[in-house]
Description:
single chain, 193 residues, mainly alpha, Arc Repressor Mutant, subunit A, two-stranded antiparallel ribbon, 8 helices, flat
Amino acid sequence: MNRRMQLFVNEYLVTMNASEAARRAGYKPHYAGLRGYQLMRRPDVQVAIRDAMDARAKRTGIDSDRVIDELAAIAFSDMRKILDWGTYHVRLQPAETMTEADRAAIKSISVRIGKRGCGHVRVRLHDKFAALAMLMRHLGMDNALGGKAARAKLARKLSDRVRQSFDRADRMRAVGVLGRVRLAAKRATPVDG
Length: 193
């Protein structure tokens, strides 16, 4: 493996994007996507990336189990474990009563004091749908749901909806033009009286 390929491996670890890594490693921007694809197919580059990822995981103490646990905490979080609410109140649970997974699911907590001295607490959780999607991808469940065929069906459905929206807009525009023509004709006719 030459020096530029090693640069590609190092940049890939930063960006996790083969095209961007190829650009940063000094390959021509016009051909970076193709070159990144070609490099990712080379066994020596794959081994170098895997070894570097393993070394980084060992160094940081982060492994796939920890990532899965964190994603699961977000994906299966429950607002009822974080907030207590009733007819006339909403209260944040004390941090001591929350589990580590509950605390991990919280994206932000902000407090705003109103004009009358009343406090407004806003609690935001991380995106559960994104966490579920990443968890499914990580566990290999996304291919079990149809993979390429399911994505093609979704693309067709989205394309049909976009086409329907444009058709509806064209019909509404046509109705608007006809309405304006009728209104102008009505205004132009003299009123007998």
